[in-house]
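hi! just following up on the protien thing from before. the input was this:
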Amino acid sequence: MEIQTETDKRKQFVNNMMESAIRIGLLFILIIWTYDIIRPFVIPVLWGAILAVALMPITQKLEAALQGRRGLTATILVLLCITLLITPFVMVSGSLIEVVSHFTEVFKQGEIKIPGPTQKVADIPIIGSKLFEIWSLFSTNLEKAITHFLPEIKTAAAAMASVVGSSLSTLLMFIVSLAIAAGFMAHAEASSEALKNVTIRIVGKHGAEWTSLTAATIRSVLLGVVGVALIQAILIGAALFTFNVPAAGLIAIGVLILGIAQLPALIVVLPLIGYMFSTQDTTTATIFSVWVFLAGLSDNFLKPMLMGRGVDIPMPVILFGAIGGMLATGIIGLFLGAVILAIWYELFLAWLRADDEKVLAQIEDTSTAEK
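and the predicted 3d structure came back as:
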């Protein structure tokens, strides 16, 4: 009888294992299928949430002026943001098309005349002699220069076309993300409460604190990374337009992209200084050089001032998280990396506080026992 009972238990155990394995397998397949379905929407939704958090303070101020109509406020703000996104893109695209069309027409008519370099170009350290040689070749024998550098020209053209295509898809993604952000902002309280409930359910009592920390970190990164990059682009762009540097708008956008990517603006500034000294008089070139050089270094004192404002997390933690996240997952990693490191920092502090509480409790128990 005991042997029969033991056999039945084993059969029941095996049946339970098989049933559990089948259920887990089906659940796993369902999760994979669900992820495949929602994967195209993950990045736009994340960007929508980030933009909603970043724009929420502006929405609240504008809402007061519109007598508390949150939906209308969010719609107006998002339409304004979309306009600000599309307008520079259209202007730059139109300028590029116009320039390409002009050069194509001039090239067909054989009227291209490139001015030769001055001796100042040859005097530039390290790259001066090579740059003088290439520039001279293009100015004296354009056909031979194009034939000689045709592989490089093709590679540059392909890279430019790829950048334009990628920029267009990114622009469309941001428009969709802004529309999603409008929905989040219109229902901010409900969205915030739902997120807090989910976070508390997952991580416990600190969930509400981490939700607030996430919002504050996103705003800090937006101000300290994107804001600083925008200030740098405006300062350098103002110098470019003041001194009538060709393609000033494109160069300013390049400075903005470099700033967001956490690359030094001096990558663009130093060649511009060389160009001005080779084409302008010494006084003009010196004034321009001082202006753009100081603007290129402005992030060194702007970031400590703006990064980490409103957050009890040290600025280096947020900065390292933003840079590491961007290297790992692209631009969106600026925000995700900073948020993840901020949460880990809070976890570390909570662990230290827990140990301190244990030590204090032991000291109190010891003192009580001695009494």
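Residues 2-65 form the longest helix (64 residues).
The mean pLDDT is 76.
cheers
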